[in-house]
Amino acid sequence: MMLKIILYAYTQSVFSGRRIEKLLHDSIRMMWLAQNQTPSYKTINRFRVNPNTDALIESLFIQFHSQCLKQNLIDNNSIFIDGTKVEANANRYTFVWKKSIQNHESKLNENSKTLYRDLVEEKIIPEIKEDGDSDLTIEEIDLIGSHLDKEIEDLNHSIENEDCAQIRKQTRKKITEIKKFKKKFDDYSERKNKYEEQKSILKDRNSFSKTDLIMMQLL
């Protein structure tokens, strides 16, 4: 199912995980392909960057190309205009550098760990890691986001059952603060997925062109 919705989205020039998720709610074709299942953009992105999935998509593309040749639908001299934009004069801003990814990811890991510890100390969320010094995984970051959603939901219920105006005011203030934390962890999750995708493209290289990412998405 995941493969079907991703390949269909690519045929519609939709490559963003968030936009693919939106199609699952807006497009009748996507709803049919997904059998009304609605995986989140985080699930979609994790599926795409999995090494096994990457190899599978490449294999399917080769088979598809071979079948088109056999059916005389295309030939090896065909040129397709697909809307891809490639910058003519490549410079350092058109490349993604391994060092840059490592630096950004290191800062993200440190910031997310610090905020996680603060939330545990303030008893806003339960402790989810035995080793508090290790970096948070994507799954743990998403789990923290789920705990924050639950905390916001519980506080909203408490407001409905609270008669004291002052306490309701304090609770709303706390909800606002927690929503800020939730927004940060949503950002951490999205960036962490992006860095994982970039590292899967880099492999043993020190850099890659942003056009590599575009072409990989088209496949």
UniProtKB/TrEMBL annotation:
Tree of life domain:
Bacteria
Q: Give residue ranges for domain Transposase InsH N-terminal.
A: 1-48
Q: What Pfam families does UniProt report for this protein, alphabetically?
A: DUF772
**By what name is this protein known?**
Transposase for IS1272
Natural source organism: Staphylococcus aureus
